[in-house]
């Protein structure tokens, strides 16, 4: 398996501010990778560095094995910028023709690829209309089409659904899944966590320029520290028995909501409850959403 | 690079900039034609004896004026098409999808230059041909060497184009247009000052004029073109007279000036490429 994106200690400094701080990432070919972060966390700067749009202050990066300083590294790459302004005086088809040619596609290929790309993003049959007359959502779809026009092996999408309605968002999710089925690597920049949760294999969370968490989506969601225990009766002794393992214990009728110090403490907690004389009816780790993980990581750092 | 050049050309056509320029130039040529015809008629009717000498002389003045305005329009066109060439793409963000392609930054700059240069050259050739044809039609006069004259006009406009692209890489669209226009005007006024300086024998004025020509060699190039548009008799008369016409030149352009203009153009392009290549988009 080849590596689609590899960065080592990639940095970008604007004046005194470090926009991207020593980011080292590996994105494998064929995976859908979610790059998460609040607005201003440095996601866009990172992607722009990969594409040669912004020059890194230091660090190394490769796209599909080629250093990013080599323009050929962008040959098999499609990019949808966050600000998806396309020349308004062109038609949809002309736009795709231009970008396809710049990406090295031949005219014959484009004759087939342009209608296909328009169809894929839901603009089938609208290619001869001027971009000026497109709605915001249609322009964003066209921006996605131009990223796909030269049959890329790697697609970098920067907030691809910001101008889309819920139906449009689902279309894009389906498209990303279809790309994964075609073994196209997708790097998705987003602050829409639900969206990322639905399509990504792996994610990295960027906070103030550095990667603070990275891993398989399932693993991140599994590191849940929320536990709900149902016992026969919640006594003060039972609550005290759990306390050494928890940040917080909230009794609620016959159940206890426990926020564990570590997810590894689940067996110890059940043993302590048992030793305190409680009859255990139910032990259930609370399923976390990516949002919980994200907030859990970002919030304490902001306060600290 | 050629894809970018074609794209740039198509942009100017599609944005109706070219249409506006063509319509205005057609209007100018129409007025020029009517003016020439009326003048020729006047001379034929009023001057019964010296028509054969007076008509070519008047026609040569008219042609000179026509080319003078064409040179001005060419420079103006160069300023207008170049002022947004880099800046507007940055301002609207269209540069992102362009520069993220497997091309180098210099290819974008040179591609744009090539597209715009083609447009300007074609425009100046057509406008020059228009003036020559109209003059010939009205007065049967043709200036001595219109080809090198037009070539110099094109060089002048291309110098402005390159300067304009540099401006566009450094400043916003509007600022760039204003700066380049003022630089062009400085070169033009400097040329007048230099000519007047030689009339009044003022070394300071001549030096100021030469310096301004170094700053923007557009007026020097126009003067070079004007030499090729005047009949020998007029040139001799000018050389003999102490009061030379400050708008034209009675000597051919110096090789060093020609060389300087070429270097100036290339330097502007190199600086544009350098600036654009280092820019974070």
Write the layout of secondary structure elements.
The complex is a heterodimer of chains A (304) and B (281).
Chain A: E1 3-14, E2 17-28, E3 32-36, H1 43-50, E4 58-63, E5 66-67, E6 77-80, H2 92-102, H3 107-120, H4 136-148, E7 154-158, H5 166-181, E8 185-190, H6 193-199, E9 202-207, E10 210-216, H7 217-222, E11 226-231, H8 236-242, E12 246-252, E13 255-260, H9 266-275, E14 280-285, H10 290-303
Helix pairs in contact in A: 2-3, 2-4, 3-4
Chain B: H1 2-14, H2 17-46, H3 51-83, H4 87-92, H5 94-99, H6 105-139, H7 146-170, H8 173-199, H9 203-215, H10 218-227, H11 232-240, H12 255-278
Short description:
The complex is a heterodimer of chains A (304) and B (281). In chain A, 35% of the residues lie in helices and 30% in strands.
Strand content of chain B: under 5%
**Side-by-side strand order of the widest sheet of chain A:** 6-7-8-3-9-10
Radius of gyration of chain A: 24 Å
Could you tell me the number of beta strands of chain A? 14
The residue fraction in helices of chain A comes out at 25-40%
| CATH topology annotation of the largest domain in chain A | Rossmann fold
Low-confidence stretches of chain A: none
The ordered string of helix (H) and strand (E) elements of chain A is EEEHEEEHHHEHEHEEHEHEEHEH
Our estimate of the beta-strand percent of chain A is 25-35%
The major pleated sheet of chain B works out as: none
- Radius of gyration of chain B, in Å, reads 21 Å
Largest sheet of chain A: 6 strands, mixed
- In the CATH hierarchy, what is the class of the largest domain in chain A? Alpha Beta
Query: How many distinct domains of chain A?
Result: 2
Mean pLDDT of chain A: 89
What is the N-to-C order of secondary-structure elements of chain B (H for helix, E for strand)?
HHHHHHHHHHHH
Secondary structure category of chain B:
mainly alpha
Helix/strand class of chain A: alpha/beta
Largest chain interface and its two residue counts?
A-B, 29 and 21 residues
């Amino acid at each position: 398996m080849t590596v689609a994106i590899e960065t080592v200690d990639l940095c970008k400094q604007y004046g005194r501010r470090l926009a991207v701080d020593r980011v080292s990432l590996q994105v494998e070919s064929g995976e859908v990778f979610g790059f998460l972060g609040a607005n201003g966390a440095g996601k866009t700067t990172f992607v722009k560095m990969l594409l040669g749009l912004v020059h890194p202050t230091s660090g190394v990066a490769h796209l599909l094995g080629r250093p990013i300083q080599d323009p050929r590294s962008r040959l098999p790459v499609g990019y949808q910028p966050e600000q998806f302004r396309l020349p308004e005086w062109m038609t949809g088809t002309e736009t795709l023709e231009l970008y396809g040619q710049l990406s090295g596609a031949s005219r014959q290929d484009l004759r087939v690829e342009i209608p296909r790309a328009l169809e894929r993003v839901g603009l089938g049959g609208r290619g001869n209309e001027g971009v000026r007359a497109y709605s915001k959502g249609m322009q964003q779809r066209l921006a996605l089409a131009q990223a796909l026009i030269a049959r890329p092996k790697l697609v970098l999408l920067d907030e691809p659904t910001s101008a889309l309605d819920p139906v449009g968002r689902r279309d894009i999710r389906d498209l990303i899944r279809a790309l994964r089925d075609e073994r196209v690597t997708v790097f998705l920049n987003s602050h829409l966590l639900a969206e990322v949760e639905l399509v990504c294999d792996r994610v990295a969370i960027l906070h103030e320029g550095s990667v603070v968490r990275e891993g398989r989506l399932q693993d991140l969601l599994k590191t849940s520290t929320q536990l709900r225990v149902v016992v026969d009766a919640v006594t003060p002794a039972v609550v005290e028995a759990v306390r050494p393992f928890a940040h917080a214990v909230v009794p609620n009728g016959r159940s206890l909501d426990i926020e564990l110090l570590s997810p590894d403490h689940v067996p110890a907690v059940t043993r302590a409850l048992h030793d305190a004389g409680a009859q255990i009816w139910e032990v259930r780790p609370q399923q976390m959403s990516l949002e919980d993980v994200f907030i859990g990581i970002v919030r304490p750092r902001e306060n600290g | 690079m050629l894809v970018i050049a074609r794209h740039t050309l198509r942009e100017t056509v599609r944005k109706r900039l070219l249409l506006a320029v063509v319509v205005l130039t057609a209007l100018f040529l129409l007025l020029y034609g009517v003016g020439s015809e009326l003048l020729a008629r006047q001379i034929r009717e009023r001057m019964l004896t010296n028509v054969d000498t007076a008509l070519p002389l008047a026609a040569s003045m008219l042609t000179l004026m026509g080319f003078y305005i064409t040179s001005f329009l060419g420079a103006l066109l160069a300023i207008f098409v170049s002022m947004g060439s880099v800046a507007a793409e940055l301002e609207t963000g269209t540069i992102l999808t362009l520069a993220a392609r497997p091309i180098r930054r210099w290819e974008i700059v040179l591609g744009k230059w090539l597209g715009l240069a083609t447009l300007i050259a074609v425009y100046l050739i057509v406008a020059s041909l228009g003036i020559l044809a109209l003059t010939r039609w009205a007065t049967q006069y043709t200036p001595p060497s219109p080809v090198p004259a037009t070539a110099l006009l094109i060089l002048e406009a291309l110098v402005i184009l390159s300067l304009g692209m540099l401006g566009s890489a450094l400043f916003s669209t509007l600022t760039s247009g204003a700066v380049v226009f003022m630089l062009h005007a400085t070169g033009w006024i400097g040329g007048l000052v230099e000519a007047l300086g030689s009339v009044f024998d003022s070394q300071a004025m001549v030096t100021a004029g030469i310096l301004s020509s170094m700053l923007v060699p557009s007026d020097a190039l126009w003067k070079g073109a004007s030499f090729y548009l005047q009949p020998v008799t007029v040139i001799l008369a000018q050389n003999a007279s102490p009061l030379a016409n400050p708008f034209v030149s009675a000597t051919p352009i110096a090789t060093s000036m020609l060389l300087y203009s070429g270097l100036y153009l290339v330097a502007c392009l190199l600086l544009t490429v350098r600036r654009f290549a280092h820019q974070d988009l």
